[in-house]
Batch of 4 targets.
Target 1
Amino acid sequence: MAQAGAANIQDGVTIDLSGLTHFSVKADKTSTTLGPGLRWGQVYTKLAAYGLAVPGGRSSDVGVGGYLLGSGSSYFIGHGFGCDNIASYEIVLASGTILNVTASSHADLFKALKGGSSNFGIVTSFVIRTFPLGSIWGGNIYYPAEPTLDQQLKAYNEFAGNDDYDINAAVQMSISFSPKIGKVFVNQPFYARPQINPPALRPFTNIQPQLGNETAL
């Protein structure tokens, strides 16, 4: 984050890892090795060729390194956080020592890196477990904010409070502003199966009026 007071310490050193974009898939397709300089759009495109996915960023521009070291919330909620799926880290310590960190070797450091950001060293590679994935359904739905506010709150309450929560379903809600329209709700329903408008997400898709609906398989 190139922002004064937030990107680094005073007179500190910034290390650019954007060139570390290595990618490979294990022969048995159970894991993939990712460089921290990759962005999730690149990762998803590469993994799609194998029929695989991993719990990664919800925007294609999000970087792999910061996301995984910050824990990582994805649309694949049934698989937990991104960091929950990491099998190993390659890390360079302040001493210059290079370690391969797993749950069985350097267990304390392995645990600390799950949300530890860059505080414990420079991670130069991640091995993350994969899972099979075919077609999915999702996209953006746009609504005028004021006429749909009560419906939005009711839909969220029904979705989050459902005792039979569907782990394949997820939704990201945000609010934007258009000079012509005013405040606009932008919902991003997502379903990790090839099913159009699944029941778990209908509380959102049934909200009216809509300004636009871009959902598709």
Note: The helical segments are 40-48, 64-69, 107-112, 145-160, 202-205.
Target 2
Amino acid sequence: MKLDPSILRALSLDPATTTVSTHGSSGFNSTAKITTTLPTKTQKHLFMKSGPGTAAAEMFRGEHASLNAIHAVVPSLCPASHATGVTEDGTAFLVTDFLDMSSKSRSSSSSSAAESQQQHSGMSLATKLATLHTTPAPTPPGYQTPHFGFPVTTCCGSTPQPNTYTASWAAFYSNHRLLAILSKCELNHGADADFHALVTRTVDEVVPRLLGDGHLNSGRGITPVVVHGDLWSGNAGRGIVGGVGAVEDVVFDPSAVYGHSEYELGIMQMFGGFGAGFFEEYHRLCPKTEPVGEYGDRLSLYELYHHMNHFCIFGGSYRAGAVSIMKNLIKKYGG
């Protein structure tokens, strides 16, 4: 397997000391491990995704920006991304730090206490995520105040997500998540008057009631923070970034946005895998938004987007899950 010259140039790698081999698997793309010998005679390991066409290029641009937005705040939380682009034959690529998640790197059962201490950084996933979610996102260039959105389109699964900067979180979530995914659902599965009406009522009645700018935190609103955007348990684990150093709690495959910290928790609630102890530790460091009594309903509203996105991509019973959430929220907050 040879590494394309476009990728070598993007990474400033010497082809004479660089090899590439197939590694792992991805639901949407090909994956490989790049190993290069640096002038210092040390080896560096990188991870590459590649895929054909403009859709793959858009996905990789979003993931590149997402990884680096997270890495800039909590470096040990995810790999850094080093390059993304398109080769001369039209193959899109993304190259990041290599994340070694082999059973050997993840297991500490056979390690001595000293080895375990050396491997572990001292920051749990809950602590890292809380740090990410309590650090204000950067103010976008050209703006005087923080805004919700992201510099590029990101993909949640295979779904491109618009991230136009918006001053209001309620407006962003309505227009660029719920209504945007409704349009894609209708494109993929055809018109559905009942479903359309429920989403419209949710946007018009529930979102302002639960996420309104004058409602959250007693009118103080919320500050945009970087969120992963697709943090189900399959996108979190333990591994060694770059093939050397400490075993870390890490995340990957993000579709980031500058958003409400609790938006992150919707998909975490949907698929489970994060226990009560995780959330207790997380909320000690990143308190629930006020009013706290509506926390569970806000998470359901955020979970709704992921049911709709999964219905858009896979069809099937995800429609029923979305309908159930909307009916419950409309019954409680509609009108």
Note: Residues 268 and 274 are 7 Å apart (CA to CA).
Target 3
Amino acid sequence: MAPSLEEPIYSTPTAKKLLVPSSLELKAAPLAYEPGRTVVEGHESYEHDDLRPYFPIVRWEPLTEVPYHDKGLEGHPNFQNLLSAAVDVFDYNPKIGTEIVGVNLAKLTDPQKNDLARLISVRGVVFFRNQTDLNIEAQRELGQYFGKLHKHATTSIPRKPGLEDVHVVYTDEKSKDQRAYFTPSFLWHSDVTYEIQPPSYTSLKLLSGPPRGGGGDTLWASQYAAYDSLSSHMQKYLEGLTCLHSAEMQAQGSKAAGRTVRRDPITTEHPLIRTHPVTGWKSLFFNPGFVTQIVGVPKTESDAIIRYLNEVISTTQELHVRFQWQKNDVAFWDNRISNHSASYGFAPHRRHAVRVACHAERPVFDAAGKSQEDELHARYGLPAVNKNGAGQSNYND
């Protein structure tokens, strides 16, 4: 600015008056809001094109049993190694779901990884926001720390070579609406439970998805809590049963779509109640997606048990946690002790995620196992849960 052409006038300092805008000036522009509508992101130049789905025409040998050691057994009881890097940690509800803030999954030390496994074993699923450093190579490396990575026999893998053990979740603007093909309870599942060693620690990273309020949430249900919701009589009855988990429907769906089934479908018998090697807690090991029959009982009885357990899993709200995704968020869960379900209604947004899962031990039932609910209630001095439904109550929400 040019110097003033007038002589400056110097005055003694005085307190400055605070200029308060009028009410008219304070009024901000109204928020742009349309109920139920979110802006759809364009993808003309897509940064994750190499991770889009691909269905290779290959054949794989049947899986054989592999050694497994649960890293959660080496974790600190209070998760102090993992939480030393966190700025916040909180549970979504008492039964399942925890979010950790401030931890970079791509830079965990081995003791922190062990704590992570232990925490997932206790809480079922743990959430981490904005994990930009966790690219697919880092995600695989983290998964391999926990065990041998699973290769899915039917679903898509990334286009990028060398990622046969990565499962791609992908729906885009042109995808067909599939809601009418499934009942809501059928969508609840634990991943590939038909395998002889179904997965334990499993990570899913969202690469692209609907904005906040655009749908596409994922729900998890605690199988610890499902077991604990049953009466002691039903628990004892189910502890003596096994059930069949089948890959046949998944394989038939792939064949109907003209895709290669890379490994022959199998049906495997697993205990209906299993015991977790880290916590020692008993959990239901059942899911509507893959369990086809209860072994050793008449079909009428089997069908009744399946319907009953489907209802327990899909409608018992305190078992559930719901996660609203944002780009680069990661969910890490234990497939041995949780079911999960996608949710529809996010079209026409693109939803693209990559999943890595490691094999666990063969499911086993240990009669000496404990109840999560009983142990935690005793530890925290909480009142016993009433399981006698014969009384009368005036329900209040």
Note: The CA atoms of residues 57 and 260 lie 6 Å apart.
Target 4
Amino acid sequence: MCILYVDGQVQWEYMTSEDGIRSGGDSDKIWYLKDAIDLYLKRVEADKRNGVFWAGGATTEDDFSNIDEFIESPTRLEGNGVRADDVYNTDDFKSMNLDASNTNNLWWRAINRMSKALAASASGDGKAYVYLKPINCRTIFSPPSQSPKDEDPNHNNQATNGEIWYYAELPMLMRNLNIKQIVSFHKEGRSFVTKVEWNADEDQAIHPRNELDDIAMDASPIMLPPEAGRQPLKRDVRQHGIW
């Protein structure tokens, strides 16, 4: 299935979940994916739609400062990039009767849908950017974990990425026809290091656009794959500054 949405501004293919079709909020008043996309397109100017994401792993306040610096740097995105917190605000959550002090399953349903919308709406210069420190050979395809770590004993001590990145954002970015490359970045000393982690054309044989499951974020509840090893969307802590 290939969908062109809002005069071609949002376009994707290989969708199986039918996300983005329903609108107006579900029975719990949580926005559907289409509602979140509509707000993104309304709030973010076309030249600023460079999506900036966070893959997970051990992250400090300095790391979040590095993400902000990369967005604002005159030699990088020159202010033309957005992360989730730049698009969706506290009032949006209040309109869905959600409170940050109670990060229940409804909260995480909204977060997952907003995150997928951010990936669906990204266009910019054909690239999406993800903050990823390559500790223990971590890549954008490293296994997901509810509590991502640089060494995760539950994943044979491999470095792990966050579940929202792996289940919501990465599959959507790969299906987003406006995105041709996913580029990782991190800081070493005073300089940023970037790497093309995925190229839609060159990596088609090993990482096709539909490689990862398209999980239905419009489902209630959102069902994670069996390998997640846990019930849907049970979360306790919101990461500071970005989700």
Note: Helices lie at 33-43, 61-72, 84-87, 90-95, 105-121, 163-175.
